[in-house]
Amino acid sequence: MRVSADNSKCVVSCMCVYRAPELFDQDETDGRVALLAVAVPPDADAVALRAVQACPSGAIALVAMDGPTT
Ligand code: SF4
Q1: What is the CATH number of the domain that holds 29?
Q2: Count of structural domains within the chain
Q3: The pLDDT value given to residue 21
Q4: What sign does the CA torsion over 31, 47, 36, 61 have?
Q5: Which of 4, 9, 26, 34 qualifies as a cystine partner to 59, CB 3.0-4.6 A?
Q6: How many Å lie between the centroid of ligand 1 and the Cα of residue 52?
Q7: Residue 56 has pLDDT above 90, yes or no
Q8: Which domain holds residue 52?
Q9: 52 within ligand 1 shell (Cβ under 6 A)
Q10: Regarding predicted confidence, which is higher, 65 or 58?
């Protein structure tokens, strides 16, 4: 699995950073989501999913490695 982010949808709630700090951070200029990693380590699938589910704006997603880029 990998994560994708659409910064235009990010409302800077920071839930992803709290839930999966190894995958998500905040951009220094506007606070919006910044990806620290694209590929999700196999043992981090559950953490990544919880972060995606916690996002209030649908700005981040989990997709298959060969899935579409968003
Ligand atoms: S949880 Fe969603 S809205 Fe909040 S910072 Fe992360 S991507 Fe942005």
Answers
A1: 3.30.70.20
A2: 1
A3: 96
A4: negative
A5: 9
A6: 8
A7: yes
A8: 2-68
A9: no
A10: 58
Measured in whole angstroms, the distance separating CA 57 from the mean position of its chain's CA atoms is: 11
pLDDT at 68: 63
Q: Give the integer Cα–Cα distance in Å for 1 and 56.
A: 21
Other beta carbons within 10 angstroms of residue 12's beta carbon come to 14
Cβ of residue 40 lying under 6 Å from some atom of ligand 1: no
Ligand 1 centre to CA of 46 (Å) is 17
Which residue type does 32 have?
R
- One-letter identity of residue 25: D
Q: Is 10 in the pocket of ligand 1 (CB under 6 A)?
A: yes
**Rounded average pLDDT over 1-24:** 96
